[in-house]
């Protein structure tokens, strides 16, 4: 983990209220796993903003972040075009070196989609087949579709039916579940719970979205009940990625 003033190489709208931010700096060499995140400092705001890492390229020393405007902080972030103070990489990601699967099912909802992209790329490099279910509220909010399609089969759902199947990711989950031997999911807690309940006999990993304070485990502002004797796990440092059997949703 380092704190670095990173240069902004590009910062463009990607979908409705969604932006793609590419940063340049040495921090990329500290990333250990897909699914980690960074904490961005914004002038005029007391708390940093956590953003998951969508992709990273050590050769060119770039980190790609995809975020959605959710409030004043992320709205202010859209105006940045030169450099940003970034703390990271933070958290525990998907343990790519420990994953042994033939066919992986990736389920992402909204801003839970970005951290799954780097995971999908690394799974394909390991020879794992990838099927993705990506859920959005509407066609206008969808992104990274062609990127995921280049890595395997993709199934799209939108809540208003403007793209793919009308409904939520769990509406097509049962059709895909029998073909996979491991799943990975990121999105709202309600979605994670529904996925875990629908795939009780399949090993899986959950990446949780949560508001954070310090981002390093000191403030206990982001916790989730644990199934072990410790009581709670801190999403920012024990996660955001957990084995499905580790936490109580």
UniProtKB/TrEMBL annotation:
Responsible for channeling the electrons from the oxidation of dihydroorotate from the FMN redox center in the PyrD type B subunit to the ultimate electron acceptor NAD(+). GO terms for biological process: 'de novo' UMP biosynthetic process. HAMAP family: DHODB_Fe_S_bind. Belongs to the PyrK family. This is Dihydroorotate dehydrogenase B (NAD(+)), electron transfer subunit. InterPro entries: Cyt_c3_hydrogenase_gsu, Dihydroorotate_DH_ele_sf, Dihydroorotate_DH_Fe-S-bd, Dihydroorotate_DHASE_ETsu, FNR_nucleotide-bd, OxRdtase_FAD/NAD-bd, PyrK_electron_transfer, Riboflavin_synthase-like_b-brl. Its cofactor is FAD; [2Fe-2S] cluster. Pathway: Pyrimidine metabolism; UMP biosynthesis via de novo pathway; orotate from (S)-dihydroorotate (NAD(+) route): step 1/1. Coiled coil: none annotated. It comes from the Bacteria. FAD binds at residues 49-52, 73-74. The keyword Flavoprotein applies. The gene is pyrK. [2Fe-2S] cluster binds at residues 214, 219, 222, 236. GO terms for molecular function: 2 iron, 2 sulfur cluster binding; electron transfer activity; flavin adenine dinucleotide binding; metal ion binding; oxidoreductase activity. Keywords: 2Fe-2S, Electron transport, FAD, Flavoprotein, Iron, Iron-sulfur, Metal-binding, Pyrimidine biosynthesis, Transport. Heterotetramer of 2 PyrK and 2 PyrD type B subunits. Binds 1 FAD per subunit. Residues 209-247 form the Dihydroorotate dehydrogenase electron transfer subunit iron-sulphur cluster binding domain. Residues 106-196 form the Oxidoreductase FAD/NAD(P)-binding domain.
